[in-house]
Amino acid sequence: MSSNQPRIPLSDRPRILVLDRLEPSALQRLEAAGDVTVVPEPDSVDVAAMIASYDAVVIRTSACLTSAVLDKAAKLRAIGRAGVGLDNIDLEAARCRGITVVHTPESGTEAVADLTIGMLLCCLRRIHEVHAEVLAGRHQQARSLPPARQMSEMTIGIVGMGRIGRAVGRRCRWGFGMRVVYADIMDVGRIDFVAEPMGFEALLRVADVVSLHVPLTELTRGMVCKRTIDLMKPDSILINTARGAVVDCADLAAALAAGRLAAAAIDVLDVEPPPPDHPLLQAPRVLLTPHIGARTLTAQARMSDVVDDVLAVLAGRTPRFPAW
Predict the structure, then answer these.
(1) Of 107, 9, 50, which Cα lies nearest the Cα of 305?
(2) Mean of per-residue pLDDT scores for the chain
(3) Do residues 211 and 116 lie in contact, with contact meaning Cβ atoms separated by under 8 Å?
(4) How many structural domains does the chain have?
(5) What average pLDDT does range 240-249 have in this prediction?
(6) Residues labelled catalytic
(7) What is the pLDDT of residues 172-181, one digit of tens each?
(8) Parallel, antiparallel, or unpaired for β 35-38 and 15-19?
(9) Residue 279 sits in the same domain as residue 306
């Protein structure tokens, strides 16, 4: 801050708690407006014990703001979620306490859609499997695997036609010529590519690839389980870049072991990091990545931009992306 700019009196500066890491430029914007405490590893602290004196808190995926935690937040006016999902915040508890919740719903759209396509290609062409075979000196064995289908001959079923679902559908339809079908409980409005709406169970029966793009709610928790997996084609591929608990991981592992699915690609697990005995760590034909859907430079910067909405709330201005 230059010497000719007015300084905010120390007594009037809001106290802001950051429970994770933010981009340096975003952190600087917070520090210019308030007194900032950064806890880069939120699992190492008792959030409930320290939140009482803060006016705002910024979180990512590691911290969980339950009703019990918010009970201790006597001064809290704003919660900033650097990301899309809000399942680690008790929204009703925040609303009842007059706390404004903001997030960055557009930040990871393109990054997650890119990863989804990469996972689809890996599973379809078994890229990760044949790479390991070549490294192990089994070049000819890798070449002897059955030929794959072409994407232009396949149907992708998108569960949740929101921002990310649309970005995936657009890539699949325009880029690869795939048939796109989708299921959503909401009226999704106009779509700028050819896509056919249908019910969730009908989608499972016709899709060669099922890609999940729904938030975690009581309605979506465990929606992919033995009963619904049994509706899918035995040569189909499941992709989950949404939330881990949308899939019953034990049921998925059992289906893969029994040959009920061709493959699965999972970026999000019900427990992160997974324990050594997690069922999907032992499952065949599964591609696992460590929740990297939005791990691009652009997406990370846009997630950190949640600080601008947090500062807007503290200043009495209307934020761009409130949770309700």
Answers:
(1) 107
(2) 94
(3) yes
(4) 2
(5) 97
(6) 243, 272, 291
(7) 999 999 999 9
(8) parallel
(9) no
